[in-house]
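Lecture notes, unit on protein representations.

Consider one protein chain, 472 amino acids long.
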Amino acid sequence: MTLLATLDHADADLTACLARVMAAVLKPGDTVALEGPVGAGKTHFARAFIRARQGAAAEDVPSPTFTLVQTYADPMGSEIWHADLYRLTHPDELIELGLDEAMRDSVVLIEWPDHGGPLPDPLSLGLEPLPDFPELRRITLAGSDARWGAMARLPAMARLIHRAHWDPARLVPLAGDASSRRYFRLLDGDRSAVLMDAAPGTTDSYVAMTQWLRHRDLHAPEIIAADQTEGLLLLEDLGDDLVARVLESDPGLAPRIYERMTDLLVDLHGHPPPDWVLRLDGRELAHQVGLFAEYYPAAAGAPGKGAEVAEVIAALHKELAEDLPPVLGLRDFHAENLIWRDSDPLGLLDFQDAVSVHPAYDLVSGLQDARRDVDPAIEAAQIARYIAATGVDGDRFCAAYALLGAQRSLRIMGIFTRLAQRDGKRRYLAFMPRVWDAIQRNLAHPALAPLARALEGIPTPGPRVIERIAQA
């Protein structure tokens, strides 16, 4: 058993906060061994865990000292078992209590676990009162790295939440994306916030870009509290009305929504980009599209094809896109990363990878969405709206738009292939036909004839090709 993390000088509130954080991440089949002397806070921890896990349906949580076992409905799984083995006289009684079966498919919290003999790969949570400060305790997390290594993040999460005075909040996991970041919503009465859990030391760019955007009245979430060393941010909750969901529930809003997206970009592009973001010029665009040539052609059954794509994109960028000064591009500017707030400005998400790039880059990102169809009439209207608002040369802008649209979609094809083959994330393959159609529409622009030739012989992502990628 490996020591995973410690939480020092934890009072009752911080102990309960850690329990609420843990309640958001444990799954059926997980067992927690609660260890410590009488009065260390084992039942206090278990009570906070169970009530957080149950949320609005929370029950009273008495100590199981005399009943030995208490069971509770688990909205996130099957059941929660809370056991106190202090009065157990023989380890075989675990079977009589049903704990051996519960540990297979329920969340199980066990006080005095040593009275029941060895447990099958539990997470050990030790509570040790401090000699000079009996109201405080040192909490340790220990377990096998393979199964419990991710739990090492929990004390840092609890510390940040406690320091920000959000420790009474219940945590609810939010749906993830293709990145490695995790998100949790904190619910405390009528207030809510969002916790971002990123890799340690990776939030500097997010914080810097948040400050840059908010200083210019563009609505990135306010940072409530941060532990940038640990990669943890507590953020303003902009709500659940992702533009993607609003478009799905009320398609009639599409013209108005896409107009707001275009106007946001016009506003954003009126500010010179900061000098510390990556310059996404022709050379960098060519480098990034290398993902396509590296992954898709071979996976689709045409190894070696597409080798000239990067070189052609660099040349076309020099010809078509270097007449306009670069602007700030949020890079992942699309319906999944924007919050609809009625008459208030759109909320912005996922902008830490912002770049300095041609003005068409984010426009094409929003209008040629890998995850959903956009009416061609809306796309054409928004291109015209942007051109009219900025006064750029329409013909040259449309040529650059087609080039950047092709580059983005080709790179996405490579990313989706890599996600499927390397990471086992095959759900993105369903988007490939739409992305490929966008590539073909862009290639229809006469200026992109050299790129069309460089892509000759590469198979369309039809059902057989997608199945081939999925099985690789």
